[in-house]
Amino acid sequence: MKKIYLFVLLLGGISIPSPGQQKNTRPNVLIILTDDQGYHDVSYYGTSDLQTPNIDMLCRSGMRFDRFYANSPVCSPTRASIMSGRYPDMVGVPGLVRSIPDDNWGYLKPDAVLLPKLLKQVQYNTAIIGKWNLGLESPNLPNEKGFDYFHGWLDDMMEDYWTHIRNGRNFLRENEKEITPKGHATDLFSDWAVDYIRQQKGSKNPFFLYLAYNAPHFPVQPPDEWLAKVRAREPNLPERRAKLVALIEHMDDGIGKVIQSLKETGAYENTLIIFLSDNGGYLQNGANNGNLRDGKESMYEGGIRVPAFFVWPNHIKPDVSNTQTALAMDIYPTIADITGAKITHKIDGISLLPLLKNADETLPQRPVFFTRREGNLRYGGQTIQAVIYGDMKLLQNSPYEPYELYNLYQDPTEQRNLINYQLDQHKKLQQLLMRHIQESGRIPWQKPQDDK
Fold first, then answer.
1. Are residues 213 and 96 in the same domain?
2. Dihedrals phi, psi of 390, to nearest 5 degrees
3. How far apart are CA 275 and CA 323, in angstroms?
4. What is the mean pLDDT of residues 379-398?
5. Closest to 434 (Cα-Cα) out of 387, 381, 372, 365
6. Residues 387, 330: one domain?
7. 408 with 260, same domain?
8. How many domains is the chain built from?
9. C-alpha angle 79/70/420, rounded to 5°?
């Protein structure tokens, strides 16, 4: 029997089902998070040496964000923000969560209410396929944070896409069981996502699937057949760039299989799909961040601005773009608004639903903050940070260098440092940033130790 859904127009959009309504009126939610994908490493921006037809198709089906920011220029903090709706340093993850204690710069607050736990309130089945990178032991394992099912990688990077090893250890898991599957990690994650979507067919509950790829993070190891395709099509590409393009195109193919599984199971029309990268592209790998300055690890725009879009058939108008400032942490309240999940604790993100319903809507202006803590000789365990408020951006890209000030509207490539010319703006943004640093300084970012 064909299901009929009644959608009520409300303020130019749609009504969101209340908890008392039928569960299957709530949309499925799929977040696709890529790793180190550059701002222009998608062909929907006209990048000529790269082809991402499946990502492009999705982008054309919804709303594209041209000024969407990761919450950090590296991966763990942005993942913490997506999952918590908070600035990463407010949940104890100002830097990378690593398996080596001497090089670990974050510890997820055990009491942080993560997105899957929130969605359990409204009867969602929840799963993560792929990279976690927010904790390697209890109480911060995925199954302890609200995910019914985990099939993926616990640590940060893989040292090899085929052997799946990091620092001599295997961090692949199915729930809490160590596994040793064969194959390229991108293929494994795509196939596992397809399997999960097929298993959800017929469920009385909607699903939330967080699909977090390791690609195109280094080491850049595309399958040989994908590299051969790129070399044949673009024979003049430098080897470094050719490998990265092949790795991204291979991932795009996997994303296409995931979307096809949604269509084959009848889930696509009622699935909210959110796509983004966790930080800017890594220039040493040949990433393309367009005309933005710098890349991964940097507080300049190339390190924190990422490709992003939202798709929800028959709810979000297709082929729409906007240039309003949005962040990864905004995903949390947006999904809560759409699903009817109630947030009763403090968050930092804002819901993008008004904008998704009406492209002419204006988001409230707010200061937004970025922090990264790191070790080694370049950082010495200290932080770099930035704040953007309106068109103005204040940043410190090294703990040993002065702050810089840019007008992003007049100078989007951050070439003219205004720090000595606009003292009022410098003071205003510096005060905002200092208050944020004071507030986040109350949050521990290392695992508590026994006093014994």
1. yes
2. 65, -125
3. 16
4. 98
5. 387
6. no
7. no
8. 2
9. 135
312: three-class secondary structure by DSSP: coil
Question: 7-11, 96-100, 293-297, 421-425: which has the minimum mean pLDDT?
Answer: 7-11
DSSP label of 314 = T
Burial class (CB in 10 A: 0-12, 13-18, 19+), 192: buried
Give the DSSP H/E element, type plus range, for residue 20: none
Q: Which amino acid is at 334?
A: T
User: In angstroms, rounded to a whole number, what is the distance separating the alpha carbons of residues 311 and 9?
Assistant: 19
Average pLDDT in the 259-274 region? 98
Structure tokens at 412: 């989007």
Examine the fold and report which residue of 357, 383, 399 is the final residue of a domain before the chain moves on: 357
Is 293 part of any domain?
yes
- Is the distance from CB of 399 to CB of 384 less than 8 angstroms? yes
Q: How far is CA 160 from the centre of its chain?
A: 22
Residue type at 332 in one-letter notation: Y
Residues 6+ apart with CB under 8 A from 218: 36, 157, 282, 284, 285
One domain for residues 348 and 376: no
Whether the CB-CB separation of 331 and 274 falls below 8 Å is answered with: yes
**What are the tens digits of pLDDT across the range 37-85?**
999 999 999 999 999 999 999 999 999 999 999 999 999 999 999 999 9
CATH number of the domain bearing residue 416: 3.30.1120.10
Any domain includes 447: no
Q: By three-state DSSP, how is residue 258 classified?
A: helix
CA-to-CA distance for 436 and 441, rounded, in angstroms? 8
Asked if pLDDT for residue 194 goes beyond 70, the answer is yes
The pTM (predicted TM-score) of the whole model is 0.94
Containing structural domain, residue 379: 368-440
pLDDT at 245 over 90: yes
- For residues 180 and 305, membership in a common domain is answered with yes
Question: Quick one: CA torsion of 235, 237, 243, 246, rounded to 10 degrees?
Answer: -60
Contact 89, 74 (CB under 8 A): no
Are 387 and 353 part of one and the same domain? no
Closest by CA position to 342, among listed 351, 330, 333, 354: 333
In this structure, which amino acid lies at residue 138? S
* Mean pLDDT, the chain, integer: 94
- Which backbone phi and psi does 400 adopt, to 5 degrees? -110, 10
What distance, in Å, lies between the first and last C-alpha atoms of the chain?
65
Q: pLDDT over 70 for what percent of the chain?
A: 94
CATH of residue 57's domain is: 3.40.720.10
Q: Where are the beta strands (DSSP E) in 260-362?
A: 271-277, 305-311, 320-322, 326-327
